[in-house]
Design brief:
Layout: H1 17-23, H2 25-32, H3 40-48, H4 56-61, H5 63-77, H6 82-88, H7 93-103, H8 106-114, H9 124-131, H10 135-143, H11 151-158, H12 162-171, H13 178-186, H14 190-199, H15 207-214, H16 218-227, H17 234-242, H18 246-255, H19 262-271, H20 274-283, H21 290-298, H22 302-311, H23 318-327, H24 330-346, H25 352-360
InterPro entries: Ankyrin_rpt, Ankyrin_rpt-contain_sf, SecEffector_AnkRepeat
Organism: Aphanomyces stellatus
Protein name: Aste57867_24127 protein
Length: 365
């Protein structure tokens, strides 16, 4: 019987040429190039991206869907495979570029530039990086000599990215337009508005105060009123009223001369802002139209409807009840029907709304 000591140890053998090839990652990849089908790391991208992704606008509009594909792909494979991705799927470079600019993958931007997949004369690269506030990408593109337009600073200001605005101001010559301060004001970015006011000469337009008022940014409204001379339009108070910003309506009424139009009370009533409706009624002379009661009725704002019926004479039209019925506002329908009957009994000179309702009912109570 053979003992354990009698068993010869197996002799190690050098791997065969085939084994050596298959175990060498670079050589194995080179072999796979000549095989039918696609490699695993390409499969997901081939399925996800077709020719429609060659449009930059299309990619931006669907950037969430693009990120849903590329984020896990990068997590699995990194960026080392990107040269071969570009080689096998040349149409994908637009999606890769746009995604890198939007999410701030500066290493991908560097690699795509090295692969000559980026066009330095295309200003959209700096525009996207600025719009999404990726200062490190903006710095990289600037260092690589990429072109830009004034839209880069405009969009950075719009989004409130002061570091990007400051960088473009200090390192680029394209400047900005009045859109920069207009859009920053509309979005409430006071720090950007102040920087542009103090460091740039483009200024703004009256739309800056209009937009700030419309969106309820009191600090911006006050700054523009005190520090700028462009003023605003009547739409500043109109839009502030439409959005229920009573504090801004009060401020504009007290400090500005542009006033408002009937659209102010009409839109405030339609949205149910009774406090704004009451203020305009008590302090302004523009009044409203039948759209005020019609809109309040349509949206079920009974308190506004009651106030307008008691304090105004513009009245409503048949649309008030029609739309209240369509929306299922039973309490509004009951009020309108009762108001008509009470008005017919109590006065020979009913408000205009009651006359309109008599016409609607064909003269019947």
């Amino acid at each position: 019987m053979r003992t354990h000591d009698d068993v010869a140890a197996p002799r190690s053998r050098a791997p065969s040429a085939v084994t050596a090839c298959l175990l060498d990652p670079d050589l194995f990849d080179a072999i796979c190039v000549y095989q039918d089908g696609i490699e695993a790391f390409l499969h997901l991208l081939v399925v996800a991206f077709d020719r429609s992704w060659t449009s930059l606008l299309h990619v931006v509009q669907h950037i969430t869907a693009v990120d849903d594909v590329l984020a896990p792909w990068y997590a699995s494979y990194g960026i080392a495979h990107l040269p071969r991705v570009i080689q096998h799927l040349p149409a994908i470079h637009t999606a890769l570029t746009c995604h890198a600019l939007v999410v701030g993958h500066v290493h991908v931007v560097d690699l795509l530039h090295d692969l000559h997949a980026l066009d330095p004369v295309d200003p959209n690269h700096l525009l996207l990086a600025s719009c999404y506030g990726h200062l490190h990408v903006v710095e990289t593109l600037d260092a690589l000599g990429f072109a830009a337009t004034e839209e880069a600073m405009d969009t950075a200001a719009m989004s409130g990215f002061l570091p990007v605005v400051e960088y473009l101001h200090g390192h680029r010559s394209e400047g900005c337009s009045t859109q920069a301060m207009d859009l920053a004001a509309g979005n409430g970015h006071l720090h950007v508005v102040e920087f542009l006011h103090e460091n740039r000469k483009e200024g703004c337009t009256a739309r800056a105060l209009d937009r700030a008022a419309a969106n309820g940014h009191m600090d911006v409204v006050q700054f523009l009123h005190l520090c700028r001379r462009e003023g605003c339009h009547a739409w500043a108070m109109n839009l502030a009223a439409a959005n229920g910003h009573l504090d801004i309506v009060r401020f504009l009424h007290k400090h500005r001369v542009e006033g408002c139009t009937t659209a102010a009370m009409d839109s405030a009533a339609r949205a149910g802002y009774l406090d704004v409706v009451r203020f305009l009624h008590e302090n302004r002379t523009e009044g409203c139209t039948t759209d005020a009661m019609d809109g309040a009725a349509e949206n079920g704002h009974l308190d506004v409807l009651e106030f307008l019926h008691s304090h105004r004479r513009e009245g409503c039209t048949r649309r008030a009840r029609e739309r209240a019925v369509m929306r299922g506002h039973a309490h509004v329908i009951t009020f309108l029907d009762r108001a008509i009957k009470e008005g017919q009994r109590k006065t020979s000179d009913p408000p205009q709304c009651l006359w309109r309702w008599r016409d609607y009912y064909g003269g019947r109570p």
